[in-house]
Structure prediction request, 458 residues.
Amino acid sequence: MICMNKRQGPISLLFAAILSLDQACSQANFHGGNAKLAKAARPESPAAPLPTPSSNPVSTPVSHPSRLATPPKIRFGLLAADMSCTFCHLEVHGSIGSIGEVAPLRGDSHGEIFGDWLASGAFNARANLTNFDGGLVVRGRTSEHYDNSGRELPVDSHGNVTFPSIDFISLAAIMRGMVKSTPVSAAFPGDVSKVNQGNLILVGTLEQPIAISGDVLIVGDLIISGVYSGSGTIYSTGNIYIPANLTALHPASFPYPDAADGDETAADKQAIADISAAKDALGLAASNIFVGDLENYNDANSMPPLATPGAHGQRYQTIYDDSSTSDGSSSFSMATNEVRNVYRWYPELSFEELYQQVKPCWTATSSNLFPVPGFVPGSRAVSRIDGFLYASKIIGGVSRATNWVLNGGMIAQSMHIISGAGFDQIGANSPCDASRINFDYRMRNGLQILEALAPYFP
Prediction:
């Protein structure tokens, strides 16, 4: 068990560059406002056709069955190969899995994991757990070079631990689902049956939620936000963008009860009841998933000026640049990670109208931490996502001036989502001292989403 100066309360993903600015914490807005519908705009270029096997970014995935029927038994709220900048202010109600070696964590890592941390490689996270305000506490097991005796970590067809890959090409022929929504403009369909050839925007409201039933494939990028109902998975051959809150109309019982001395019976029992009650559930799978604000407004030296209005003079930081990531990971460089591909088919000004504003937690003493002309505190923030996210490359994001809650879980090669949580709220009896992953225990009890991952999680 790792236990370094146990801290009280939750934890969030706070990025190194933002810590250097002493960013203020923000209150959780569990019911953030619905995103506005974007202006009508036609794509500037048609969506790419279904990629050929040679251009598919996925490497040698396990073959899929002729139809998606068997649900995966996923046991982790967070599963990634690279999560070195993850535990700055993060609370995980569930377990964590690591593929390969766990890199040393940042020295200011602090948070709490109410479950196990199982790694197939060496667990070097022990190195940098001296910090200024807390430490990292793992309530369950911490096991390096884990033998996978319980089959928790994903495996290939030979039983070897591996990162799960999805062959999106093969999915087109076996999609059986449907999505219905109100179109944001004439350029994008509101309804999808099985496969949508082209980029897509889905925005739901309480009055007109996105209705999801079964599995569909988007051949292109997807923008999705707002309220949804039903159960199913949306696969995308490109990127998925979540610019604002994405919430279930009929959510499951989050957070589920934490494990008691390794016993997860109470959580499993409630999860099975939620499945029987047909509570809403959403799986999202793509090459990359980008959450919240896409732009870099601080690193003017290495980033070119934006081509369109919207950057208000002085820039403020993000994760999408080598210089603002703790490990300099090229996967988060705007030059390589495709984050701005969306502007090729949807104008930037229209995309910006999809952002929402939430209540920030900037105090009188911390409100000057982002002195950006024209920036509205609490804007461009995502405070809640209900769904289980998969990315074959990265899940990245910025939730400005607030923390975030993910009710579900995530799987990615690399994961960094930064937020405004933590700074002046450490130890406070407040939800804004951290961001949270509330694992969806339905995923280990037969929930039928993300079935394309089933071969890896038998």
Q: What stands out?
A: The first helix runs from residue 16 to 20. The mean pLDDT is 74. The helical segments are 16-20, 168-171, 265-276, 348-352. The first strand starts at residue 78 and ends at 82.
